[in-house]
Amino acid sequence: MPKRSRSQLSRNSSQARASKIRRNEESSSETENRLSIHRQYVAQSRARESSTERSQRLAEQNMRTAQIRARESSLQRSQRLAEQNVRTSRVRARESSLERSERLADQNLRTSQARARESSLERSQRLAQQNLRTSQVRARESSLKRSQRLTEQNLRTSHVHARESSTQRLQRLEEQNIRNIQSRTRESSSERFQRLQDQRERQQTSRARSRNQVLAHSNRSAFRYDPQIDYAQQSSVQIGDMNKICPKCSAKKWVDETNGMCCASGKRLRAEEYIHLRDALNQDGNVDPSNIGQRVILPSSFTGSPRYLHEKPRRDDLCPKLRETRLICHIYVQPNGLKLKRNYYLISDLSIVMTSFQGCFI
To answer: Which residue stretches does the UniProt record annotate as biased composition, category Low complexity (predicted)?
Structure first.
């Protein structure tokens, strides 16, 4: 019986098994030597091929890669990416600064050549796929990973900007402006509308964040008045000068101040009318304020009355001395400059309590 011939597939399989056994038994130096010889052979082969052969080879390679990637599962894909990252990190750790510079220069050259050959449709597809991958990665990351990524990105950017010279900085800004102009020239009307809309949303978010910070800083600042702070210089405060004169009482007012705040349009007496009452109470200690004037029952709508304080006890925390007040005289004095000064005389049974608020509106 004649000897059965082996098929080409079985011969290739046996050669592959033998090659795999040899590679498992070889040392690291032998592996480096074999890979170096293989790289030289590949470089010589790539140098001899024409542009048509190169395009055909790349198309076949991309097709094989796409078929393999389509058949692999999510677990196989994760393992492949993990192994690829490990190999890449090992190679990057062994390379010198010169090799790294050459690699980055070659990579930038290949990228620029590929970007120059692609059409507008291919560019749109590439950017869409890139944005999709980026959004998927950003959606999977946690808040801690996002903070770490942004921190590392800002740190790398600051290091790069700190090392560059003035000439490099000007060149970088010029290249950035050129790229922006080219990108704006190539974009369609829909892309421009989407870009402007995203820009407006980012600006609104940034302004809302800064506005919330200002409001949080100025919350209840009237009760924590600091004379060292120039409140008129803050962008959130728009007071202006007190260059408006009240026709009733000749008091200085702000332009947008509500009418009637100073003298109720001439119906409220000013501080000068109560000067004799104040002098009498200060000079004569035997005068009982409860016996002066006519006794009336104040309604709950009168601010500071006992019924008002009983219905709204929260006001006691603001001014606890109003509990024992029998007579409340609001003494308005002439404002001086941009700082408003108002004196409140709280007259109790046998004592006068004077509290001064400067720059505080209640």
So the answer is: 7-18
